[in-house]
Amino acid sequence: SGSGDMGDTVYVLDLTPIYKMIGGREGRAAAGLLEICQRQFDEFRESNLDIAVVKGEQFIMRFDKCNNEQGFRRAALIINEIGFQVLSDRFQKMEVPDLLVAADVGDITNEDGTVNTDKIGDVRKKGGVPINLDGLGDDVPKWAKLVVVKMAKTAKLVAMNRKKKDADIEMVEIKHKKAIADDDIKMVEIKRDRKKDADIEMVPIKRDRKKDADIEMVPIQNKKQDAKPDWVKSAMKAKPEEKKTVQRSGKERRAKRLPVGEKNKRSGGLDRRGRGH
Predict the structure, then answer these.
(1) What pTM did the predictor assign?
(2) Higher model confidence: residue 225 or residue 88?
């Protein structure tokens, strides 16, 4: 892609406001702008590994063997020369807070290494790579220092918002976990209460039934026993006497079955009418 490796810092000039001041991206003035950008970069180049490319309306510069402050200073000096050559005195009147931004290569490229201009816009909104104002030197244009100050404020504001957002997310997660925990506790309490209520209900039922059964059984037994008269009770208690069997001869058994007159005939003496036999 020519813009460097991930972790490298690049410096991006936004050509959009300059295009607007020269009448657009078409025509001789627009072509002259790109030629001036490349020529000024070549004049400040200190290494063959220093590179610059144009992507859309973004002029991207990378310097070899420079820290962030040194690279930002060189980019600011190049842009200052481009501005005066293209716009002359009008450049001093430009609104330049977003004209230059320092960015990590990984933040502005796709997975295949190509530059993504939409990501460059996102980097500007977040403040880009922080630059130490004291490390820029005295020859840095005033507008460039204003850019550094604005970038720092933007980055600080973004960090505060991110921290607040993370705190809100954490608070939501805590509330969510607490709500789940409270629901679990309530559910356990409900289960315990239900179990306790069930035990309370079961104990009286078991005790009452047994107690009622005992109360009912005693009167029923006494009532049945008392309902019988005394003579029945005594009869039930008294044992019947055993009858003794009398042994009789055959003659005695036959005599017992015959009428009285017949007996007299056989035994002699008088019958019922006083007749002898």
Answers:
(1) 0.58
(2) 88
